[in-house]
Amino acid sequence: MEKAAPVAFASAKMRALKEDELFPSTPGKFKIERSHQFHRQYQRCFASSTTIFLWVIFLIALTASFLSFQPFLSSSSRLSSAHSWGGLQWERQVRVSASPRRPSGLTVLVTGAAGFIGSHCSLALRKRGDGIVGLDNFNSYYDPSLKKARRSHLSSHSIFIVDGDINDARLLSKLFDIVPFSHVLHLAAQAGVRYAIENPSSYIHSNIAGLVTLLEAVKSADPQPAFIWASSSSVYGLNDIVPFSESHRTDRPASLYAATKKAGEEITHTYNHIHGLSITGLRFFTVYGPWGRPDMAYFFFTKAILAGKPITIYRGRDGLNLARDFTYIDDIVRGCLAALDTAGKSTGSGGKKRGAAPYRIFNLGNTSPVNVPTLVSILERHLKLKAKKHVIEMPSNGDVPFTHANITLAMAELGYKPTTNIDAGLKKFVKWYISYYGHAARGIFKTNL
Ligand SMILES: O=C(O)[C@H]1O[C@H](OP(=O)(O)OP(=O)(O)OC[C@H]2O[C@@H](n3ccc(=O)[nH]c3=O)[C@H](O)[C@@H]2O)[C@H](O)[C@@H](O)[C@@H]1O
């Protein structure tokens, strides 16, 4: 590029100079003169054989520089977005990261690898010797520095995260060209239930358009990987039969977020039906733990309590406390790995289905709902600080009053069995939070209970 730019610049300058010389600056009268003058100049230029020779050399140089920079030009549109990928060094990093370290290890593309669940799953897969390539767009929905810290942590375990978007079809096609992925663990999404009111289009962009772009790439990949992805407990919406079972109604979402996750379940079904993709949808129930998401209540409650700031606790319209089936990250990771290990093969090749492939949906919850005031009191105990509580009626923002998972199916088919209760899980979270954000150093652990 260093060479091409001056050539292009010089030729542009030449053109500009010639035009300046050829055309007088006063408009109007020169029109005829202009054509005469141009004609004379044209004749002068090509009259001598030396000039013709120079022109030929110039054109050859121009063509050569254009051809030699074709690969760069083809990736320049990628660079025009915030992301960068491509090049030999990049391909080498992708290939090395994708190589399993154990015989018959999986080769997994983990989308959202710099996210909460994605980073934990990537690490767990690497620890048992699987090959992983991460993909993440490092967007600023919440503090990207936390995502970058997760990336550094993964990088120290030789996991490479591609900086790119699931909406980038060319990037996906490149990844599937250079790595024969056995599985895709699709965890990239626009998360958060209440943010959908503020920014609805971000949910369509990531959870619908991004999902379809990714499925198109998976469909065309050879070999065709099995597809395991993050649905959500929120698909149960207004369902009030507890505990929530996979056979219950999911056609009454309470938020746009939930609606996009429900749509994802239907969209993946069509790819299973038409293209033979092996599909496993995992309905996660309010996952929490170390390296968690700062937009979730347990996380920002902790921050506020440590800072002595008030927290807002929502209460149901009937005066009842809201409750969630909070599920600890390590249990979820075990569920994800079991889903990968038990996923049947996709049957398509070259985009054509060769036979029926599995389509599965599982609840991954804890089966012990905890109400929000109890969550807060556990945090208070572990933080040794009293929260300043501000209780208000639940706004109409997409929240549901409670969630409670029936995990019978996941237990039977995945061997899934959550083992961490909310007290033990929040204790681990608080320990991580203090070590990560360093509040202990500021003497915040003095009790005010
Ligand atoms: O399981 C799920 O499907 C979903 O779990 C969480 O959503 P949510 O359960 O709403 O988790 P939080 O946002 O952490 O809220 C937890 C509880 O705290 C309550 N809350 C939240 C915020 C607040 O300021 N006050 C408050 O009382 C909420 O009403 C809710 O009952 C995640 O944010 C979603 O991405 C995920 O898909």
Automatic annotation (TrEMBL):
Membrane-crossing segments per the record: 45-69
Compartments, record wording: Golgi apparatus, Golgi stack membrane
Annotated NAD-dependent epimerase/dehydratase domain residues: 108-342
UniProt keyword Membrane, yes or no: yes
EC code(s) of this entry: 5.1.3.6
Keyword Transferase annotated: no
Top-rank taxon: Eukaryota
Name recorded for this polypeptide: UDP-glucuronate 4-epimerase
One GO location term (cellular component): Golgi cisterna membrane
Main location: Golgi
Species of the source: Dendrobium catenatum
Record-stated family: Belongs to the NAD(P)-dependent epimerase/dehydratase family.
Membrane topology: Multi-pass membrane protein
Reaction equations catalysed: UDP-alpha-D-glucuronate = UDP-alpha-D-galacturonate
Keywords: Isomerase, Membrane, NAD, Transmembrane, Transmembrane helix
GO molecular function, one term: UDP-glucuronate 4-epimerase activity
Pfam families in alphabetical order: Epimerase (PF01370)
